[in-house]
Write a structure and sequence with these properties.
CATH architecture of the largest domain: 2-Layer Sandwich
CATH superfamily of the largest domain: Bira Bifunctional Protein, Domain 2
Number of domains: 3
Oligomer: single chain
Mean pLDDT: 88
Distance between the termini: 70 Å
Number of helices: 15
Strand order of the largest sheet: 1-5-6-11-10-9-7-8
């Protein structure tokens, strides 16, 4: 082999080694049950979050932001040690100081802790809060359900009235409706309180005792520890045993019964159609009286899926050492809502700047961006700016409806050329008037009107 061939062969081996190293470096994928939300997808997330903020603000709810991990005891006490979340799904770890910490599997417990730690229990009632962010559960993956998932939720403290239950349900209903989700129903139930629930528990146990040996091991364990959790069982083979169980509303005390009838009356008066679900208990131990879910039957989600769920929890603040405080709230899964919202408009700038003068192009872009006009310009691969024709090609690719052409002659006279990319027409515009004119054109376009050519 000649020296040249040897050198060439050496380069090939080196390239192959680099390729193997590169392949090894990019082979790392996100953990199972997590995913990246890429540009183009984040636009839909931002629109949904903005809509939620508008709905919450209109109803008087204020934002709260909690840590994504808490002391493990917080969730054990709040969610319940007999729940699947605590028993099977929590991401728990020990830190360097030997403290047990858990990535939050749900939002309510952290909000209640902050309600007390932040002194909000001394504020005038009701205290109405909302939150958004990631939650973590180790569970089976399905459409719209991941192990790191996102929720939007709200909590309202300080009112025992069924009016508060009705409001939180109606805020959830408004959010889904305004987001364009139409094929959902509101399922509701009352599971009573500490005064009347024991009688229901005993009736439920008596009914299920003869078939206990046929149920799954989880339900056999729940039978003694928390029989209401049996109604939340997801094992198909067990479902036939839960069809004719006693219903909780038949065991309600006077207070719970009055609350239940007032709630259904309030929802009916607002023409909110509800479905009574006798087996609805929710998967968390802290609920009292009202529980509800907004459920959707849509093939894109695979099966009947809960979009939003919640209820009343009048004892949870006391569990954490606070004063007796009635409360109600809910949480909605962001990923599932986004599946139902379908395709979203792709990102595009409002205007693209074409110029041979880099400094002036950047200055003009900054001026327009300061006026909240989405603006792009050509970024050459080399030092020199590309030709006008090449830049106009980039303007076409950007899908910007308007292009600002800033040639040396225009810049010298304090003007630019504004081109309508769909009509192909253009006119000379004073630079001082450019921002105002673009705002008029953009607003006209958003209103669904055909903008006049500049």
């Amino acid at each position: 082999m000649s020296g040249a061939e040897q050198e060439s062969g050496h380069r090939d081996n080196s390239t192959e080694g680099s390729r193997q190293q590169s392949t090894s470096q990019v082979a790392i994928k996100p953990p199972r049950g997590t995913y990246d939300i890429l540009p183009g997808e984040t636009d839909a997330w931002q629109r949904l979050e903005s809509l939620a903020r508008e709905v919450f603000l209109a109803a008087g709810y204020r934002e709260i932001r909690n840590p994504i991990f808490e002391h493990t005891e917080l969730f054990k006490r709040a969610v319940g040690e007999t729940t699947d979340i605590v028993n099977k799904e929590m991401y728990t770890f020990t830190d360097k100081s030997d403290r047990s910490l858990t990535l939050r599997p749900e939002g309510t417990a952290g909000v209640v802790r902050a309600y007390l730690n932040g002194g909000m229990h001394r504020w005038s009632a009701p205290v109405k809060l909302w939150y958004a962010g990631p939650m973590f559960r180790y569970e089976s993956l399905k459409a719209g359900r991941q192990r790191q998932f996102n929720q939007i939720g709200l909590e309202a403290f300080g009112s025992a009235s069924a009016l508060m239950d009705a409001e939180v349900i109606m805020v959830a209903h408004a959010l889904l409706s305004k987001a364009g989700v139409n094929n959902f129903r509101v399922e509701i139930n009352s599971i009573g309180c500490s005064a009347c629930r024991p009688a229901f528990r005993e009736a439920l146990k008596a009914h299920l005792a003869p078939c206990l040996g046929e149920l799954c091991t989880d339900c056999q364990d729940r039978y003694e520890r928390n029989p209401l959790r049996m109604l939340d069982c997801k094992v198909k083979a067990d479902q036939s045993h839960y069809q004719d169980v006693p219903v909780s509303v038949d065991f309600l005390c006077n207070d719970c019964s009055e609350h239940w009838h007032e709630l259904t009356s309030l929802l009916n008066a607002q023409q909110i159609k509800t479905v009574y679900n006798k087996r609805l208990v929710r998967g968390l131990d802290y609920y009292t009286k009202t529980v509800f879910e907004l459920v959707c039957d849509d093939p894109r989600l695979g099966v009947s899926s809960t979009l939003c769920g919640g209820g009343r929890y009048d004892n949870l603040v006391e569990v954490f050492g606070g004063p007796p405080t009635p409360a109600a709230g809910w949480a909605a899964g962001v990923e599932r809502l986004l599946i139902l919202l379908g395709g979203q408009p792709a990102y595009r700038p409002d205007v693209f700047i074409v110029s041979a003068n880099q400094a002036e192009a950047l200055k003009l872009a900054c001026e327009l961006r300061a006026e909240n006009i989405i603006c792009e310009l050509d970024y050459p691969t080399r030092t020199a700016m590309r030709s006008f024709s090449k830049q106009l090609q980039q303007a076409n690719k950007s899908s910007a409806p308007w292009t600002v052409i800033a040639g040396e002659e225009e810049l010298a006279s304090g003007a630019v050329a504004l081109k309508d990319m769909s009509a192909g027409s253009q006119q000379r515009v004073a630079r001082s008037e450019l921002g105002r004119l673009l705002h008029d054109l953009i607003n006209t376009q958003k209103a669904g009107q055909t903008p006049a050519s500049p």
